[in-house]
Each structure stands twice: as structure tokens, then as C-alpha cells.
């Protein structure tokens, strides 16, 4: 161990720096005098992931519905990542939100070391591995066919952090631990060593199978890579590695079996169609390639540093082919789901590793020995500076917004004192915070459709919003035509964006249907409107209280901070 630390101390230091950059903005927020326990959420969908982690804390590890009391459904999104973070938080006595934040630097630390281990195995060069680990971690924004991030860097306004991509909750903060852990084990046992170590074969199979419970993208990529390797070993008559790859696949499939059974139950659920439409599951047989993947393959195939092991080149070429196969699975299945996830969390990190290996290989080969350490330090310094976005002017705005969200503190503290399980109606931004910090339901969350739910429930929620806005039935159709993007997001989520390429392309017959249903909804009493969503409590901003004060079915019961609380009569 001492020898390992002495040889690879720089990788450990790099991982610690990345972790420190990740936690720095949160430490700054925690030191604010006005901090009321509301955490900073800046990366895509982190509010949803935080709410899901809190759901595990509430004793619902399957996370079948985060926002309503529908706990007897098949899970729609596998919950393993949230369970891992919740387990970490409970072990250290943290609440759900603080556990989510505390897990971020730890995940970044582990992923950085795993990328280093993979890059070192591929190149057998500490210099190349160090830069290959730094590039996707600290220079992720630079991995693009655009000069904008480079110009930001040159202009002293780096845009690479501090919200590093690997710190995004669950995907990829947990899923990429499985991804890079599996890649390290796969290369070392199936490519580098003469014979696989069987305990690592079992672990590799478990990592591949377990990745399905966090990310179908990681699972399909690793599965495709394993299949390619197995076919290659069979073609080479390499029985030792072919058997090892076969057993890895069997273990992965066994681990996947519970997921398959759950998916069968989910697919049979009467609200599956509504759910699949909302999340953007689309019928497609279009070929997807892009520019980055062919560029990666050509670099590896024709410009692989001659000092690096040839097996490393073969492994990366297989990885490029595996990404292509996973990216285009819809050519066989006819179903596509957000192929951008492959690009963000697999292709770009692999491209960063390849770029780092080539930069490191050039330094090793062409830079004189007495300049080598200085050049490496310079490259790492640029990447570290690129990731220190909290020094850039835009961070002042991000920090200000995080401080402003502390206004939700009094509301969640008040809701935490209510012993009765409430179904709380609020505006959409407030509905993000209620399930993160309380045990109450929040039917107005933008992510509600990510779970099996009747379309009628989404319709009634939409109608209540417009009635509260004071939109009369005679004006309703004209109003929603002018707000087509909002209507689409509220009723059908990502459906039109993914199937039509235009979220405003609402079918003409839907306008008539919605308008007719709204007229029926509007004729009903306020009590019936609230009953349609089972609402028991309303939390309205003080500035928006006027329509609620005029509703006879509600009674003001408290004022907490910027919010007025109403209970049903």
C-alpha cells in the first residue's frame, strides 16, 4: 500500500482537488448567516433525485411514487443509486438533503481515481493517466466541437465548474462508479491478464448487472462491450478469456432478472402509456452517430501512441463500437429513450480519457525529461482553473439564487410540524422542495408524470392551475393555444419534443378535447376541484394569495415566512 501511494500520490491529490472543488460552493452557502437548511441544486433534475433519496428515508426504498401516496406500484425508475446515497447518509446520521450533498465530493473522488486506474491500465504511463483522469473530470466542458468553453477560459471566465458533471446526483455520481469500476475490471481480467481472477469476474458481473438498477445506458453499453469482447475471444480461439466473459455475462443476466420482472409488471400497468409518453419514450429507427464518436475511433485506430500497450488500443476501439451499438439499439427494438444520455455520461467521458491519453503520450514522447514535470503541472493547472467556476462572475448569480431559496425554510419547518399526512397544493417551484424536506405529497411537481399516473389526474391538475389563474372557459382555448409549450410540458411531458421534434406541435383535436373538459371542470365547485387531486392543504405565496382568499372551500390557518397556509373546509 505504501508503494502504491508513493507511485500514485499525484492521482490521489487530483481526486482530492476535484472533491474540494465540488464541495466548495456548498460550504460557502452553509456559512451564510441566512442559511435555513435549503441545499443548493444546480445540475439537471437534482431536485427530483433529492426527493427520491428522501423517499428512501421515509421507508419506501422502491420509490414507486415520490410525490403521491401511491406506494404499491412497480417502480418506474430503478432506485439503487438513491438507496446507496440514503444508506451513506443514515450511516453518518445525516438528513436526506445533506446526505445528497455530502455524497457528491465522495463520488467525484472515487470516479476520478477509477478513471485514473483505467487510464493507467490502458497506457502504463502515470503522466498520461493523470491527464486522462483530469480531462473528463475537470475539463468536461472542453470536450466539444465548439470554441466557446476555450474562449471562456482564455477570457478569465472558466465555465467548467464547480458543479462538475460527475457530481450530478445518482446519474452519473453513482452510476459512473459502476461504469468505470466495471471498465477497469473488464480490461484487467479479460484483456491484460493471461487468466482472469474469478472473484473479480463475479464482481464484474455484479457491477454490470447492478448498473441496470441505476442507468439503462451504462448497462447497455457495458453489455455491448462484453458481447463484443466475447465474440472476439471466440474468433481468436481464446477459450480462457471467452469462458470468463461468458460467466460475467451470466452473472450480469442473473442480477438483471428482478428488473425484468418489475418491468413486465410496469408494462402491464393501465397507466403505463401515460407514463411512457410523459418520459419521452418514442418509436424510432433512426441511425445516430454524431461527430465525436468517429473522431474518437479514428484517433485510437491510427494515432495510438506506440509506447502504450496495443491491448489498450483494442479495448478502446471495442468501447467505441459498443457505444455505437448501444446508441443505435432502436434500429432493432424500434424504441428510443433520450440517446443524449449516452453522449453526456459515456461518450464524452471516454473522449476525455482518449484526449488525455494522447496529450499525456505526446508529453512523454516529445517533452525533454527536465521540462516534463513542469508541462504536466501546467496542463493540470489549466484544467483545475477551468473547473473553478465559482470564481467566475456568473457564480455570484448562482450563489444569490441559492441564498434566495432559503425563503422556503420556514415553510418546510412548518410542514414538518404537521403530524397528519397532507397533500399540499403549491406553485411548481415550491412543489420541488416539499418532497425533499417533508413527508407530505406534492401533486404539482413537474416530475409527477415520471411515475404511472392516470392522464385524468394530470388533466385535472392542469385545469386547477388555469382556474386559479382566473381563465374563463370561453377564453381557455385561445389561452392554451398561445401557451402551447407550457401546455405540452404539463400534460404530456417530453412526448411531443421526442416524437415530433417540436413541443408546441399539439394535435388539433387535443385543443378541442381539453377545452371541453375544462368547461366541465370549471362548472364544478371548488371542493370538487380540490377533491379531484385529493388536496388537503394549500401553501400559497403571500404575493399570490388573492385567488385563494376568495375560495370559500379554503380557510387561512397560518402565515409562515413568505407563504400563507390554507386548509380545506
From TrEMBL:
Coiled coil: none annotated. Keywords: Membrane, Transmembrane, Transmembrane helix. The chain crosses the membrane at residues 12-31, 99-120, 127-151, 163-185, 219-235, 244-266, 286-304, 316-337, 349-368, 375-396. It comes from the Bacteria. This is Glycosyltransferase RgtA/B/C/D-like domain-containing protein. It comes from Candidatus Kaiserbacteria bacterium RIFCSPLOWO2_01_FULL_50_24.
Amino acid at each position: 500500500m505504501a508503494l502504491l501511494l508513493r507511485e500514485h500520490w499525484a492521482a490521489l491529490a487530483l481526486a482530492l482537488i476535484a472533491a474540494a472543488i465540488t464541495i466548495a460552493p456548498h460550504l460557502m452557502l452553509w456559512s451564510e448567516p441566512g442559511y435555513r437548511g435549503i441545499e443548493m441544486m444546480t445540475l439537471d433534475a437534482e431536485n427530483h433525485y433529492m426527493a427520491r433519496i428522501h423517499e428512501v428515508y421515509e421507508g419506501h426504498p422502491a420509490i414507486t411514487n415520490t410525490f403521491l401516496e401511491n406506494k404499491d406500484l412497480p417502480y418506474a425508475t430503478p432506485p439503487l443509486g438513491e438507496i446507496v446515497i440514503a444508506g451513506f447518509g443514515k450511516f453518518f446520521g445525516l438528513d436526506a438533503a445533506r446526505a445528497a450533498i455530502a455524497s457528491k465530493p465522495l463520488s467525484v473522488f472515487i470516479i476520478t481515481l477509477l478513471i485514473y486506474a483505467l487510464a493507467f491500465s490502458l497506457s502504463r504511463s502515470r503522466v498520461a493517466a493523470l491527464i486522462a483522469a483530469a480531462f473528463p473530470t475537470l475539463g468536461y466542458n472542453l470536450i466539444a466541437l465548439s470554441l466557446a468553453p476555450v474562449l471562456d477560459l482564455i477570457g478569465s471566465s472558466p465555465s467548467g465548474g464547480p458543479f462538475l458533471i460527475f457530481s450530478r446526483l445518482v446519474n452519473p455520481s453513482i452510476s459512473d462508479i459502476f461504469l468505470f469500476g466495471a471498465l477497469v475490471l473488464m480490461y484487467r481480467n479479460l484483456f491484460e491478464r493471461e487468466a482472469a481472477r474469478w472473484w473479480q469476474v463475479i464482481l464484474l458481473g455484479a457491477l454490470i448487472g447492478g448498473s441496470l438498477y441505476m442507468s439503462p445506458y451504462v448497462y447497455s453499453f457495458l453489455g455491448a462491450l462484453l458481447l463484443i469482447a466475447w465474440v472476439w475471444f471466440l474468433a481468436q480461439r481464446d477459450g480462457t478469456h471467452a469462458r470468463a466473459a461468458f460467466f460475467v455475462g451470466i452473472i450480469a443476466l442473473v442480477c438483471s432478472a428482478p428488473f425484468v420482472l418489475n418491468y413486465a409488471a410496469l408494462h402491464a400497468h393501465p397507466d403505463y402509456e401515460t407514463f411512457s409518453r410523459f418520459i419521452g419514450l418514442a418509436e424510432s429507427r433512426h441511425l445516430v452517430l454524431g461527430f465525436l464518436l468517429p473522431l474518437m475511433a479514428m484517433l485510437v485506430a491510427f494515432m495510438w501512441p506506440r509506447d502504450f500497450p496495443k491491448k489498450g488500443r483494442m479495448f478502446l476501439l471495442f468501447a467505441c463500437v459498443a457505444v455505437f451499438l448501444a446508441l443505435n439499439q432502436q434500429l432493432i427494438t424500434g424504441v428510443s429513450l433520450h440517446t443524449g444520455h449516452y453522449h453526456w455520461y459515456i461518450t464524452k467521458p471516454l473522449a476525455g480519457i482518449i484526449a488525455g491519453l494522447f496529450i499525456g503520450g505526446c508529453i512523454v514522447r516529445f517533452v525533454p525529461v527536465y521540462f516534463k514535470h513542469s508541462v504536466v503541472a501546467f496542463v493540470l493547472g489549466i484544467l483545475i482553473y477551468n473547473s473553478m467556476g465559482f470564481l467566475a462572475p456568473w457564480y455570484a448569480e448562482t450563489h444569490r439564487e441559492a441564498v434566495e431559496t432559503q425563503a422556503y425554510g420556514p415553510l418546510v419547518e412548518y410542514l414538518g410540524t404537521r403530524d397528519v399526512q397532507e397533500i399540499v397544493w403549491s406553485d411548481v417551484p415550491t412543489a420541488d422542495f416539499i418532497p425533499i424536506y417533508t413527508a407530505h405529497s406534492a401533486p404539482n411537481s413537474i416530475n409527477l408524470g415520471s411515475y404511472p399516473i392516470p392522464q385524468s389526474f394530470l388533466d385535472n391538475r392542469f385545469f386547477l392551475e388555469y382556474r386559479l389563474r382566473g381563465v374563463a372557459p370561453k377564453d381557455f382555448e385561445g389561452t392554451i393555444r398561445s401557451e402551447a409549450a407550457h401546455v405540452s410540458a404539463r400534460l404530456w411531458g417530453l412526448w411531443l419534443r421526442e416524437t415530433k421534434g417540436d413541443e408546441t406541435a399539439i394535435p388539433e383535436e387535443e385543443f378541442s378535447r381539453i377545452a371541453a373538459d375544462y368547461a366541465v371542470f370549471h362548472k364544478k365547485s371548488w371542493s370538487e376541484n380540490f377533491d379531484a387531486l385529493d388536496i388537503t392543504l394549500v401553501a400559497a405565496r403571500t404575493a399570490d394569495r388573492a385567488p385563494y382568499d376568495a375560495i370559500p372551500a379554503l380557510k387561512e390557518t397560518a402565515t409562515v415566512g413568505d407563504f400563507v397556509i390554507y386548509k380545506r373546509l
